[in-house]
Amino acid sequence: MPAGAWRDVLNALRANPRWKLSFDIEPASWTACAGRPQAYQEFRRMLQQKPLDARLEIVNGTFSQPFGWALGGESNIRQLLRGREILRRHFPESVVDIYAVQEPCWSSCLPRFCAPSASKPLC
Protein backbone atom coordinates (compact mmCIF):
# COMPACT_ATOMS: atom_id res chain seq x y z
CA MET A 1 0.00 0.00 0.00
CA PRO A 2 1.26 3.52 -0.68
CA ALA A 3 2.77 5.40 2.25
CA GLY A 4 -0.29 7.52 3.06
CA ALA A 5 -2.83 4.73 2.61
CA TRP A 6 -2.46 3.39 6.16
CA ARG A 7 -3.13 6.83 7.62
CA ASP A 8 -6.09 7.28 5.23
CA VAL A 9 -7.65 4.03 6.47
CA LEU A 10 -7.23 5.05 10.10
CA ASN A 11 -8.63 8.53 9.43
CA ALA A 12 -11.67 7.01 7.72
CA LEU A 13 -12.26 4.69 10.68
CA ARG A 14 -12.05 7.64 13.08
CA ALA A 15 -14.42 9.72 10.94
CA ASN A 16 -16.93 6.86 10.73
CA PRO A 17 -17.16 5.26 14.18
CA ARG A 18 -19.76 2.71 13.08
CA TRP A 19 -17.57 1.29 10.32
CA LYS A 20 -15.95 -2.11 10.62
CA LEU A 21 -13.20 -3.17 8.27
CA SER A 22 -11.85 -6.47 6.99
CA PHE A 23 -8.34 -6.58 5.58
CA ASP A 24 -7.68 -9.12 2.86
CA ILE A 25 -4.03 -8.27 2.28
CA GLU A 26 -0.88 -10.35 2.28
CA PRO A 27 1.40 -10.28 5.37
CA ALA A 28 4.11 -8.36 3.48
CA SER A 29 1.78 -5.36 3.65
CA TRP A 30 1.89 -5.51 7.44
CA THR A 31 5.68 -5.64 7.27
CA ALA A 32 5.56 -2.45 5.19
CA CYS A 33 3.10 -0.90 7.64
CA ALA A 34 5.52 -1.63 10.50
CA GLY A 35 7.77 0.98 8.87
CA ARG A 36 5.13 3.53 9.90
CA PRO A 37 5.19 2.92 13.67
CA GLN A 38 2.31 5.19 14.66
CA ALA A 39 -0.15 3.63 12.20
CA TYR A 40 1.18 0.13 12.91
CA GLN A 41 0.67 0.50 16.67
CA GLU A 42 -2.84 1.82 16.14
CA PHE A 43 -3.71 -1.20 14.00
CA ARG A 44 -2.20 -3.49 16.65
CA ARG A 45 -4.42 -1.91 19.32
CA MET A 46 -7.48 -2.34 17.13
CA LEU A 47 -6.67 -6.00 16.48
CA GLN A 48 -6.41 -6.65 20.23
CA GLN A 49 -10.07 -5.78 20.80
CA LYS A 50 -12.47 -8.55 21.67
CA PRO A 51 -14.26 -9.92 18.60
CA LEU A 52 -17.66 -8.43 19.46
CA ASP A 53 -16.16 -4.97 19.95
CA ALA A 54 -13.60 -5.18 17.16
CA ARG A 55 -13.75 -2.81 14.24
CA LEU A 56 -10.92 -4.45 12.37
CA GLU A 57 -10.30 -8.03 11.30
CA ILE A 58 -7.90 -9.87 9.05
CA VAL A 59 -9.42 -12.33 6.62
CA ASN A 60 -7.72 -14.77 4.29
CA GLY A 61 -4.24 -14.61 5.81
CA THR A 62 -2.46 -16.32 2.93
CA PHE A 63 1.24 -15.59 2.37
CA SER A 64 0.49 -13.97 -0.98
CA GLN A 65 -2.77 -13.58 -2.80
CA PRO A 66 -2.71 -16.76 -4.85
CA PHE A 67 -5.22 -17.99 -7.34
CA GLY A 68 -6.37 -20.95 -5.29
CA TRP A 69 -7.89 -22.68 -8.29
CA ALA A 70 -4.50 -22.75 -10.05
CA LEU A 71 -2.56 -24.30 -7.16
CA GLY A 72 -2.66 -27.78 -5.74
CA GLY A 73 -4.17 -28.50 -2.35
CA GLU A 74 -0.80 -28.66 -0.59
CA SER A 75 0.27 -25.31 -2.03
CA ASN A 76 -2.93 -23.70 -0.79
CA ILE A 77 -2.38 -25.12 2.69
CA ARG A 78 1.22 -23.86 2.68
CA GLN A 79 -0.01 -20.40 1.66
CA LEU A 80 -2.31 -20.34 4.70
CA LEU A 81 0.29 -21.74 7.12
CA ARG A 82 3.11 -19.42 6.03
CA GLY A 83 0.81 -16.39 6.00
CA ARG A 84 -0.49 -17.19 9.49
CA GLU A 85 3.08 -17.61 10.76
CA ILE A 86 3.97 -14.08 9.62
CA LEU A 87 0.71 -12.59 10.91
CA ARG A 88 1.42 -14.14 14.35
CA ARG A 89 4.73 -12.26 14.44
CA HIS A 90 2.94 -8.98 13.80
CA PHE A 91 -0.27 -9.62 15.76
CA PRO A 92 0.17 -12.59 18.13
CA GLU A 93 -3.32 -12.20 19.58
CA SER A 94 -5.14 -11.90 16.26
CA VAL A 95 -7.56 -14.54 15.09
CA VAL A 96 -7.92 -15.33 11.41
CA ASP A 97 -10.90 -17.61 11.15
CA ILE A 98 -12.32 -16.55 7.80
CA TYR A 99 -10.84 -17.59 4.50
CA ALA A 100 -12.26 -14.98 2.17
CA VAL A 101 -10.62 -14.07 -1.06
CA GLN A 102 -11.55 -12.46 -4.32
CA GLU A 103 -13.81 -14.39 -6.65
CA PRO A 104 -11.15 -15.86 -8.98
CA CYS A 105 -9.72 -17.79 -6.06
CA TRP A 106 -12.85 -19.55 -4.93
CA SER A 107 -15.25 -19.62 -7.85
CA SER A 108 -13.96 -22.96 -9.08
CA CYS A 109 -14.92 -24.45 -5.72
CA LEU A 110 -18.60 -23.57 -6.08
CA PRO A 111 -21.08 -26.34 -6.86
CA ARG A 112 -21.61 -26.92 -10.54
CA PHE A 113 -24.80 -25.55 -11.99
CA CYS A 114 -26.86 -28.06 -13.90
CA ALA A 115 -29.48 -26.68 -16.23
CA PRO A 116 -32.98 -28.03 -15.59
CA SER A 117 -34.73 -30.05 -18.23
CA ALA A 118 -38.19 -31.52 -18.48
CA SER A 119 -36.90 -34.97 -17.64
CA LYS A 120 -34.14 -34.07 -15.16
CA PRO A 121 -34.27 -31.72 -12.15
CA LEU A 122 -31.40 -29.50 -11.05
CA CYS A 123 -28.55 -31.62 -9.73
Short description:
Helices cover 41% and strands 5% of the residues. It is mainly alpha-helical and 123 residues long.
What is the secondary structure topology, with strand pairs?
Layout lengths: L4 H11 L5 E3 L3 H7 L3 H11 L8 E3 L14 H18 L12 H4 L17
Helix pairs in contact: 2-4
Q: Would you give an account of this structure?
A:
The protein has 123 residues and is mostly helical. Helix content is 41%, strand content 5%. It has a two-stranded parallel ribbon. Helix 2 packs parallel to helix 4. The longest helix has 18 residues. The relative contact order is 0.15.
Query: Which percent band covers the strand fraction?
Result: under 5%
User: In terms of per-residue confidence, which ranges show pLDDT below 50 for 5 or more consecutive residues?
Assistant: none
**How is the largest sheet built, in terms of strand order?**
1-2
Count of alpha/pi helices: 5
Q: What's the order of the H and E elements? A: HEHHEHH
Cα end-to-end separation? 44 Å
Helix content: 40-55%
Summarize the biggest pleated sheet. 2 strands, parallel
What is the strand tally? 2
Identify the overall geometry.
globular
The chain-level mean pLDDT equals 79
What would you call the structural class? mainly alpha
Rg of Cα set: 18 Å
Give descriptors for this structure.
41% helix; 123 residues; mainly alpha; globular; two-stranded parallel sheet; 5 helices; 2 strands
